[in-house]
Amino acid sequence: MSSSAELKQLVRRLPKTELHLHIEGSLEPDMVFALAERNGISLPYASAAELAQKYDFENLQSFLDLYYQATDVLQTEEDFFDLTWAYLQRCAAENVVHVEIFFDPQSHTDRGIPFAEVVQGIDRALQQAQSELAISSQLIMCFLRHLPEDSALETWQQAQPWLHLIHGVGLDSSESGFPPELFQRVFAQARAAGLKCVAHAGEEGPADYIEQALDLLAVDRIDHGVRITESDTLMRRVAIEGIALTVCPLSNVRLCVYDQLADHPLLSLLDDGLQVMINSDDPAYFGGYLCANYDAVIDALAPNQAQIVQLVKNSFAASFMPEVEKLARLQEIDALL
Ligand SMILES: Nc1ncnc2[nH]cnc12
Ligand SMILES: [Zn+2]
After folding, report:
1. Are 34 and 41 in contact (CB under 8 A)?
2. What is the pLDDT of residues 277-311, one digit of tens each?
3. Annotated active-site residue in 28, 94, 117, 203
4. Quick check: is 203 catalytic?
């Protein structure tokens, strides 16, 4: 039996991936203030500490309201570079060797920021992380589901010159009342162009949204997906088809999907054979980066070593990295045990 301290050490020793990370959700309060100053923006808070005090959310929407407001400080290519580079340096410190990063272009282009500034700033940091930190990455462009599909289709058009930098598309923002079926045309176009497809589903919305994302959007992975526990049939299907759920434990507690982490179904989903793994979602808002999520799971759910190793291995197995690299990483993990 490993102690919780030993498991936390093991987590740090093993290479890891992060598959569910909104780059705008890594915008720390200090950086909000630094970028506001650089860009001459005045904020309705006296200090970073006062802003951080507002991070007490009732649900997904109360978080999103603040999250979209904070993104207003992101204005230039350099801002997007700095934001992404800060996240990647944290990855290096935590032995995260591969990341699949979401970005929300509409939350920037709707404010008049050119798509090119956003994608080039993020990509420059990703390239630098590959050469200086040996971190590989894929970029996933998310459509905001609270906006009409026509806006997503317009964004898809804006992305055309940049598709060489974009690996996949996703669907995020307010879930309830915005089912996946509303976005079938834009996902069909992305899939036809050879992009991977993912969608947030079953975070606050019902299990039926997970089924819609699979059947109508043909997604490769489900983001969150925890409300799958409401359907035994869907659980069996997702286990058999090997569809991964990118679970975000601290996020689920901070957005009141569960009252406490001890109620989280992560380990029961794992033991039922679902391909789940741990991610941080919006770490600047939810109490920590990837290792903090592992630590919280270790403290609240008392997993054994085999379960921790399986979660780490699932993060590679479910990634979009080339199969040979995946296999090499899985072998590397076995060699470290
Ligand atoms: N947890 C989340 N759910 C939906 N949309 C998001 N955008 C950023 N974080 C999100
Ligand atoms: Zn998310």
Report:
1. no
2. 999 999 999 999 999 999 999 999 999 999 999 99
3. 203
4. yes
- Is 30 within the bounds of a domain? yes
pLDDT the model gives residue 46: 96
pLDDT band for position 333 (50/70/90)? very high
DSSP 8-state secondary structure symbol assigned to residue 321:
S
Residue 245: DSSP 8-state: E
Assigned domain for 337 exists: no
What CATH number should be reported for the domain holding residue 208? Answer: 3.20.20.140
Residue 189 placed within a domain: yes
Total number of domains constituting the chain: 1
Is 154 in contact with 183 (CB distance < 8 Å)? no
37-92 tens-digit pLDDT: 999 999 999 999 999 999 999 999 999 999 999 999 999 999 999 999 999 999 99
- How many helices, marked H, and strands, marked E, lie in the chain? 17, 8
Residue nearest to atom 6 of ligand 1 (CA): 173
Q: How distant, in Å, are the alpha carbons of 59, 113, 162, 209 from that of 110?
A: 24, 7, 18, 27
Protein residue closest via CA to atom 7 of ligand 1: 173
Residue of 27, 59, 101, 282 to mutate, ligand 1, most atoms within 8 A of C-beta: 282
State in Å: Cα 281 to ligand 2 middle. Answer: 5
State residue 1's pLDDT score: 67
**Per-residue pLDDT at 61:** 97
- Tell how far the Cα of 22 is from the centroid of ligand 2, in angstroms: 6
Ligand 1 probe mutation, 20, 55, 61, 64, most atoms within 8 A of CB:
64
The domain of 24 spans 4-332
